[in-house]
């Protein structure tokens, strides 16, 4: 846990070579005997590495089979959502290159907060950079998916939209508005060419 959170790649490689467990549920089973390894809030080493922006460690954990890419913390976060919450662009990029699901919701039972809701809550240059990169990435794949994620929420659902979470007229808000405009424009272009989304 500590090696992943602190970015100690060499130590983590050694631990993985010794077949040490890195998945939160399995770590929790050993917790009564060793409370020092109890995963905080159900977070695995992958969650901690993603939140801290250690992209190399994220890749190492997933490729070595030491962590499940879509495992969830007690808060409902996957590693991708942890990276987003922390505004960690390199970790976000790495996790997406490893096939993390960008459409994942925090709450599994119904459409709820997504990656853009978490990015909107952050008011830093890092979060804004993540919004710009992720919206461009998603628009290249499927602009309608990007638009849906950026627009999710509203009075009917009781869930605020990402733009409603961000500080009005702040830089994060402006990055979200620009991303939404780009997604809508690309949807319109695809529609004009007869290309279907999704």
UniProtKB/TrEMBL annotation:
It comes from the Eukaryota. Transmembrane segments: none annotated. GO terms for biological process: regulation of gene expression. SMART domains: ANK (SM00248). InterPro entries: Ankyrin_rpt, Ankyrin_rpt-contain_sf. The keyword Repeat applies. PANTHER family: ANKYRIN REPEAT FAMILY A, CHROMOSOME UNDETERMINED SCAFFOLD_25, WHOLE GENOME SHOTGUN SEQUENCE. This is Uncharacterized protein.
